[in-house]
Amino acid sequence: METVNIAPPAVPARDLTERELALREREEQLKRRELELGMVEKEIKALKPNWPFEWYPIEYHDIEEEIPPGKQVMMRRLYMNVLLTWAALVINWIAMLGIWFSGDQSGPSYTLWGTLYLLGIPGSWKFWYRPIYFAYRDKTTLRYFCFVLSFGMHCFFVVVMALGLPNCAAGGLMTMIQQFAVGNPKSAFCTFIAMVAWTATAMLSILNFKKVQNEWGKEGVDMTSITQQLRNEVRDTLAPVAADVVRGSM
Predict the structure, then answer these.
(1) Which of 17, 91, 118, 194 is 20 to 30 Å from the Cα of 188, by its Cα?
(2) pLDDT tens-digit profile of 153-207?
């Protein structure tokens, strides 16, 4: 008895093509979903605080991860700037305490200025470092505008501290000379260290300010364009409110 081999029914070429297209489409959907999940995971990771310490995180801060490669060098210089400012604040306060304990209790309220110094550490972080950080990250000129205003005041402040102007609780040049004149060599040495710290901070701040302005200026960002963007933001914000007021009054 002969064995008859029954071949499977032939599948039309058109059906194969449709199946291949369907499989490819599913593969592309899976890839897109994987990318979306990866982006979500990255965003969740980015929202997790990691600064200043792993055991005491407050904010998320990662220059390599968030700042474009061409801006990372400048951002690291600004990060060094804020750290040096904090160091100068601490050294200056120690110098002021040294003057206080030496018996020279003239001048401003050291308790008040101590409070201002403590506020200066988070203030420099919030008012000029984070704005320029977000300006580089998001390429927003409004953040840059906030940085220009606050960092300009910061530069003025550190110059005043380096000079050691009277009644400013500044351990700078004039305070150092005054301490040498009254015969307080220990306090004079402390104010000398503070003067060096403030001078280094002032020089770095002014240099960084010029470099940042040059970078943004090359990209066509100046006070005119910033002013125009502010006007547009105000107009876009107030236009819906004005429209609602007009509709309500009719």
Answers:
(1) 118
(2) 999 999 999 999 887 888 899 999 998 988 888 889 999 999 999 999 999 999 9
Count of C-beta atoms within a 10 Å radius of residue 93: 20
Query: Average pLDDT over the chain, rounded to whole?
Result: 82
- 98 touches 89 (CB < 8 A): no
In this structure, which amino acid lies at residue 151? Answer: F
Q: How far apart are CA 188 and CA 196, in angstroms?
A: 12
- Cα dihedral across residues 122, 123, 128, 130: positive or negative: positive
The three-state (H, E, C) secondary structure of the chain, written as one string: CCCCCCCCCCCCHHHHHHHHHHHHHHHHHHHHHHHHHHHHHHHHHHHCCCEEECCEEEECCCHHHHCCHHHHHHHHHHHHHHHHHHHHHHHHHHHHHHHHHCCCCCCCCHHHHHHHHHHHHHHHHHHHHHHHHHHHHHCCHHHHHHHHHHHHHHHHHHHHHHHCCCCCCCCCHHHHHHHHHCCCHHHHHHHHHHHHHHHHHHHHHHHHHHHHHHHHHHCCCCHHHHHHHHHHHHHHHHHHHHHHHHHHHC
CB atoms within 10 A of CB 108: 14
Question: Which residue bears the tokens 């040495």?
Answer: 189
